[in-house]
Design goal:
single chain, Rossmann fold
């Protein structure tokens, strides 16, 4: 199965995948280098994932996309009724509010209408009612064109977990890379739990196999 892994990060969702040919797209060169160290057999491309999807979607059987979540996060909606800030989200830039990045929904609509394989788009639970109804697993939203079977709610309060706990959950040890502590924490927090990534791929694989046998489209 040819898999496109967009906004790949260090590869939390990809960690337990086997028997797949993966092309990973990541914008940040430092993060892409870490991903490549963990997954040397994957093809890693440093470019804009949104544009790459538009130009190459036909080349893959399964597409996973995890667009940036900052503009959708519930932390963005911490404002009082009078318009004053409850807290400052970004102390460095002073920004606490922004337009939601609707590239998230651009990709969902695009994949749902033009992609012939299976796809999964992942993001955080948003501070607003989602414009397209997702499937919810633990602390994340997932949009897909197949049914994702339920998983036990075993990953609560992800961003409140200590660093060692996140390393244990994701299976990534970044101690030898020499990263600043804050950057290391960010990379681990942005990881989708490997078990969740594997579960979703297996759901997609099962549907693809059944379609190959029956030559019918399965609707949910």
């Amino acid at each position: 199965m040819k898999v496109l892994n967009l906004y790949a990060g260090i590869g939390g969702n990809r960690k337990l995948w086997t028997d797949v040919e993966v092309t990973a797209v990541e914008w940040d060169e430092k993060i892409a280098a870490i991903y490549q160290d963990f997954f040397p057999d994957d093809k890693v491309i440093i470019t804009d994932a949104h544009q790459y999807l538009l130009e190459h979607f036909k080349e893959f059987d399964f597409i996973w996309s995890s667009p940036p979540c900052q503009s959708h996060s519930r932390f963005r909606n911490l404002w009082k009724g009078d318009g004053s800030k409850i807290r400052n989200i970004n102390k460095k830039s002073g920004e606490s509010i922004m337009f939601p990045d609707l590239k998230l929904y651009e990709e969902i609509i695009f994949l749902d209408n033009f992609f012939k394989g299976k796809y999964c788009v992942e993001n955080v639970i948003s501070y607003y009612n989602p414009l397209i109804i997702p499937q919810k697993i633990n602390n994340h939203y997932f949009w897909s064109n197949f049914k994702i079977k339920r998983l036990p709610a075993n990953t609560r309060y992800i961003r409140g977990q200590i660093e060692g706990m996140r390393e244990k959950i994701t299976g990534f040890n970044l101690d030898d890379i020499g990263l600043p502590k804050r950057f290391k924490r960010k990379l681990l927090n942005n990881c989708v739990e490997p078990e969740t990534g594997l579960h979703i791929l297996e759901c997609a694989k099962g549907i693809i196999k059944s379609q190959d046998v029956t030559q019918k489209t399965i609707f949910y």
